[in-house]
Design a protein that fits this description.
The protein is mostly helical and 416 residues long. 62% of the residues lie in helices and 2% in strands. The longest helix has 35 residues.
Length: 416
């Protein structure tokens, strides 16, 4: 579902970088967690070393990206509301904003997952029955200040500094907001509100879990032997082999520890579902899905027709016969009709209905033949002969449509 959201054009806009970072790393983490749950569904065996090394570092990246994305999103919403524009005023501001967002969303998470995590890594990785590989950082003051602090400080900055201003401007400048977003096709007031809701959900999930993690590390350490500032490089990287924990041992940690354990593992799936509910069911997203489906179908060689297209049938080839010239024999029915028409014409009582049914000839043709070409009958033989000849020429049978090339001789009808 997150992959579909990533493929939608709304998420890929350059001003929406925080949502893009969050979708991408949550997608990677969700895939890794799903594979781990399958491979270690009923065991805690230590295996797939390289895979577990990669997964543990991905977990550290996502651990930092989630609170950083909240800060990036709320900061961008604040800029949109204060400037009343999606775009920054000059190139210097754009470059500074790009530097800040890429540093928060990519550089710092990579540094934390790389050298900083390695400096605090107690074992290579740990395997938890039913869940798979997991990271393991040794608790210390340095570890809290370099790793755990990122789950608390960015959400606090968002809540304390940006949130009140964003909400205040969102309601105070409601009409102004609506006016400037309508002039740009990229964002609407609804999308603005969706991004704000996503940032709120992220804060509600990451800030409590960050504070809980720190408390659960500090309180037990202070009760026992105290929390060390830093155990030392040699101590941390001696006996660095992976360890495993059965599910019964996880349950033995107590109700609070078990609740914290499940809350940590379900934060990413809940956040992923929230992102899809907010951005994956919009009209723009559905259009993007259809485009992707049509592209994939087209690549495999099948081109679906347009919906609701009606099937049309093509007419066969139509052959039009040539008009036979004089010296051909007429059809008896046509001959009798001509005789009657000529007789009626001579008495001046030819009516329009008769002209319309002349052997398939349109009304305009018959009118032209009888009114324009034929002289007015006067009762003389010459006039009748002229009418007769022109009527025979006009209503002579056409060429045989079945391909017969025989010519039929017309017999000149006698005019009574």
């Amino acid at each position: 579902m997150l992959l579909l959201v990533l493929l939608s054009s709304f998420t890929r806009h350059n001003w929406n970088l925080g949502v893009t970072f969050l979708c991408f790393w949550l997608f990677v983490e969700s895939v890794a967690d799903g594979v781990g749950c399958i491979l270690w569904s009923n065991n805690a065996d230590i295996k797939h070393y390289v895979y577990c090394d990669i997964v543990t570092h991905l977990q550290e990246i996502t651990f930092v990206v989630k609170p950083m994305a909240t800060l990036i999103i709320t900061r961008r919403l604040y800029l949109i509301a204060s400037l009343q524009s999606l775009y920054l005023p000059d190139k210097t501001a754009k470059r500074w904003n790009c530097f800040v967002e890429w540093t928060l969303g990519l550089v710092i998470p990579l540094l934390v997952a790389g050298p900083i995590y390695y400096a605090n890594q107690g074992v290579r990785f740990q395997v938890q029955e039913g869940f798979g590989c997991s990271d393991n950082a040794n608790p210390s003051v340095v570890e809290i200040l370099t790793i755990d602090i990122w789950t608390v400080v960015p959400p606090l900055i968002s809540v304390i500094h940006y949130y009140p201003r964003v909400i205040r401007m969102f309601y105070r400048q409601g009409r102004n907001n609506r006016s400037f977003v309508c002039s740009d096709n990229t964002i609407s007031r609804t999308n603005y509100l969706r991004i704000l809701i996503l940032a709120s959900i992220d804060v509600l999930l990451t800030l409590p879990i960050g504070i809980t993690n720190i408390v659960l590390k500090v309180v037990p350490a202070l009760k026992n032997s105290g929390l060390p500032v830093y155990p030392g490089w040699t101590v941390l990287h001696t006996n660095w082999s992976p360890v495993s924990f059965s599910y019964s041992r996880i349950k033995a940690s107590g109700t609070a520890g078990l609740a914290q354990f499940y809350f940590t593992h379900w934060t990413s799936p809940v956040l992923a579902l929230a992102i899809f509910a907010l951005f994956g069911l919009t009209t723009e997203a559905r259009v993007s899905y259809l485009r992707i489906i049509h592209f994939v179908i087209g690549r495999i060689g099948w081109k679906p027709g347009s919906r609701g297209a009606k099937k049309t049938t093509s007419l066969g080839d139509i052959e039009f016969g040539l008009r036979m010239q004089g010296g051909t024999e007429s059809d008896p029915y046509t001959e009798s009709r001509i005789e009657g028409l000529v007789d009626s014409r001579s008495h001046g009582d030819l009516y329009d209905g008769e002209k319309h049914v002349l052997a398939g000839v349109p009304l305009s043709n018959s009118e032209s033949i009888l009114s324009k070409e034929s002289p007015r009958a006067t009762g003389s033989a010459a006039s009748d002969n002229t009418v007769e000849a022109r009527m025979i020429s006009a209503f002579a049978p056409r060429h045989n449509v079945y391909g017969s090339e025989e010519r039929i001789q017309h017999e000149k009808p006698e005019i009574v």
